[in-house]
Amino acid sequence: MRVLLPWLREYCDPDLDVNQIEERLTMTGTKVEAIHRYGVPSADGFVVGKVLEAELHPDADRLKVCKVDLGSANGSDSADLATIVCGAPNVAAGQTVAVALPGATMPDGTKLKKAKLRGVASEGMILAEQELQIGPGGEGILVLDEAAGLRDGELVPGTPLQDVLPIAIEVLELEITPNRPDCLGVFGVARELHAATGAPLQRAPWSEDPGSDGPVSGVEVRVQCPDLCPRFTARVFEDVTIAPSPLWLKARLMAAGMRPINNVVDITNYAMLLTGQPLHAFDLDRVAGGRLTVRRANDGERVQTLDGQTRELDSEMVVIDDEQGPTSIAGLMGGARSEVQPNTERVLLEVATWSGPNIHRSSWQLGLRSEASARFEKGLQPEQCMHAQVVASRLLLELCGARLAPGTIDEGWTGAPPQRIRLREAKVRAILGVSIARARQTEILAALDFQSADAEDTAEPQRSGLDVAVPAVRRGDVTREVDLIEEVARIDGVDRLPATLPARRGAAGMLTHAQRVRRAAEDALVGRGLHEIVGWSFTDPGLLDRLRLPPDHPLRRVVTIENPLSEAQSTMRPTLLGSLLDAARHNVARNGPDVAIFESGAVYRASQDGRLADEHHGLGALLSGALTPRSWRGESGEVDFFAAKALLGAVLDKLHVDWSLRACTWPFLHPGRSAAVHAGAEMLGFLGEVHPLVASAWDLPHSGTPSGAHPGGHRQAGGRTAAFAIDLGKVAAASPQVIAFQSFAAVPSLRRDLAVTLPESVSAEDVLARVRDAGAKTLEDASVFDVYTGEQVGEGRRSLALSLSFRATEKTLTDEDIAPARERIVAALAELGGELRG
Q1: 575 Cβ partners below 8 Å, 6+ apart?
Q2: Do 425 and 465 contact (CB within 8 A), yes or no?
Q3: Closest listed residue to residue 438, CA positions, set 418, 458, 423, 421
Q4: Which of 204, 205, 194 minimizes the C-alpha distance to 443?
Q5: By the 8 A CB rule, do 6 and 43 touch?
Q6: What would the pLDDT profile of 550-579 be if each residue is shown by its tens digit?
Q7: Which tens digit of pLDDT belongs to each residue from 150-170?
Q8: What letter does residue 245 receive in the DSSP assignment?
Q9: Is residue 61 predicted with pLDDT exceeding 70?
Q10: Nearest to 592 by CA among 716, 691, 698
Q11: C-alpha 36: how far from its chain's center?
């Protein structure tokens, strides 16, 4: 929301510059996103001038040479006369105009200089509305003495233009949170500034109502859906003169981001910006039968709105109709049939309250978002209707020469008593960690329009404090005692609160086991040179196809978002691999061929029972390109399955997880170069080289790419991409919470090697598992250090060279000591079809 600082200062004017105001508002919760300068960068060089002569240019049919009285604009005692060449068709002698002198800077940054136009020197520029950004303007110049609402009396040449028109405006761009619709108007922000700075707050602009109560002759309103329209008010204005708005009103609307149209429509927008409550003006003579009905729309019903579009409605939306059918979509946009026209003479001004959730839903369904809908969907209160009615009524009488008909239609709202909340001093101290004097609490609440009174409780002193009445505009936001404490804290200054620890109540400040596991896993990857990325939790449905997932694959159980930001973010990611591949592609496309990244984040899968989604925290890593930087010693190694396995081992071994790999086929991993990661019977995740088709979809190197070439044209050191992803929740369950210390052995180990031939179908993991089980307590470690296939071992078989390490705690082992364990190991290998070599 854009708030003009001069407008804000009319209601609360602290002795602070714009940057200090920005700091105070932001520190009290009304965040200032940016400070804009609207109009000219500086008002210097812009003055009021009087056209004394306007003669045709001797060498140009469309130019006029003007003699302009600038008063004492240049600092001399006598009047300055300037020759200005002007191409506007409406310039004429006797006009009072806006002039930019040489040296003045225009809104686009252009600095004016003296110039010659067709041989005639020009000493400035006579300005139009659009050149000052104070109105849409037209072809002609801005004639000040024809613009209504400027000031009484003759404008004196040489007067600084900023004293006449707002040509240099500072604008605050505010981020208003959904719970604070009271700050969607200038006066609401002024109240916040009053509370934050202590500067006086002027009377509310709706404090003096020119209207009266009672029925309005010739107009009837019926509300058939009070649940969606709690209050509907209307007034009638006759003898209305439709004309352009005065320049000060145009300038304020333009600076706030709204386009001036005519005085009636501009007044409704002005009142909305001031009060936060949207309004709508009907041409009463175009309201068939003089009767408006508020009702739910019929399915398929059509309305042509003010933007010229015809929109199809459904039964959940609300329309305002007359005897000829719908005339506007409630809370969103008026209809073309009853809009104010240049010949309008009677205006029906409608100000109503609409159901916020219903307006939000209707706006989304129709793809129609307006300034009105943005306010209504945040939950305006019925009391705000008359705020806008009063402000708009006064302006219609002042600027349109209108006559207000007796009475005010007011349907549906009977009023509500203010909600009262007890604010206990003891609770304030307990929540904030510091005491705030009751007098200070009262002062803060009064500045925010809360009414409070002392409340003593001798029976329960802990309940003593203030009885607080919540103002109507805060009804939807302040509902509990803690909400009042927040109001007191943010205005008194959250930045002034001392650093205190909350009461422990027996709780110990420590990380949970799952948190320790997560941090240790991330540290293990960072320690090995990987960079952490943060990917989107949202993804597009096409990810599943690019990962080659069949229709029945478990990862196909995706969580679909009901109101996505876009089609590309319409599902929740079922795996971390997608965002890792996206990040790798981004780096490779920018000449970063060697990628080593990981991500720790949530993944989501739809539950099989159709209830809550299955959300868990995962850890994934991806390698692509070269393993180490290139150097004078030659090319480094390429990424492969075993590089990713080493990273996975670094993580799981650090967490003391007893893990293993089992053969498994994944659609997005290379067959034969992939595996499932297990901890006992529990599968933790996957590991392997990325399938060539999947890598190609992301323009990444794969085993089908020759070394040094890449499908996308980028030079690559290697031709493979490898990755793993594991469920950290399952890893935490498999990781011991307490690590028992084991002293270092005082005796040496005894190493023996075995070479055994086995069928190729037997995996090394199965071999090592059998060896460890058979080795009993004396077998300290077992590993494979060589693999051989060829004629000497026979077709369909391979030779594995095993390194076995034996150790006892009490003595140095001999061959006789380990002989029983070795025999058991050989027997176990025989059960797998193994035969010893040599």
Answers
A1: 547, 555, 603, 618, 620, 725
A2: yes
A3: 423
A4: 194
A5: no
A6: 988 888 888 888 888 888 889 999 999 999
A7: 544 568 899 999 888 888 899
A8: P
A9: yes
A10: 716
A11: 20
Q: Which of 302, 297, 367 is closest to 332 using CA atoms?
A: 367
What is the SS3 string spanning 484-522? HHHHHHHHHCHHHCCCCCCCCCCCCCCCCHHHHHHHHHH
Map residue 530 onto helix, strand or coil.
Answer: coil
DSSP assignment, residue 560? Answer: B
**Claim: this prediction has a pTM higher than 0.70:** no
Which residue is it, tokens 């180990």? 749
Give the full edge-to-edge strand order of the sheet including 660-663: 531-532, 595-605, 614-624, 721-727, 682-690, 669-679, 660-663
* pLDDT (tens digit per residue) in 449-484: 999 999 887 778 888 899 999 999 999 999 999 999
Question: How far apart are the C-alpha atoms of 403 and 413, rounded to whole Å?
Answer: 26
Instruction: Please report the sign of the dihedral spanned by the C-alpha atoms of residue 299, residue 300, residue 304, residue 307.
Output: positive
CB atoms near residue 153 (< 10 Å): 6
Which pair of structure tokens corresponds to residue 135? 């109105």
Strands 409-411 and 231-238: antiparallel
- The sign of the CA dihedral 179, 183, 184, 188 is positive
Q: What is the pLDDT of residue 745?
A: 77
Q: How many CB atoms lie within 10 A of CB 606?
A: 19
80 CB-near residues (< 8 Å, 6+ apart): 69, 70, 71, 72, 73, 74, 158
The widest CA-to-CA distance across the chain, in whole angstroms, is 124
User: E strands of 739-796, at which residues?
Assistant: 750-759, 779-788
CA atoms within 13 A on the CB side of 175: 8
Instruction: Classify strands 682-690 and 721-727 as parallel, antiparallel or unpaired.
Output: antiparallel
The encoded tokens of residue 129 equal 């509305």
Cβ pair 549, 538 in contact under 8 A: no
Structure tokens at 8: 């804000």
- Strands in 544-590 per DSSP E: 571-572
Is residue 711 within 8 A of residue 742, CB to CB? The reply is no
Which residues have a Cβ under 8 Å from the Cβ of 673 and sit 6 or more positions away?
640, 641, 688, 689, 703
Position of tokens 């009490």? 810
Structure token digits, residue 269? 């927008």
Is 741 exposed, middle or buried, given 0-12, 13-18 or 19+ CB atoms closer than 10 A? exposed
Give the single-character DSSP code of 141: P
**CA 361 to mean position of chain CA atoms:** 19
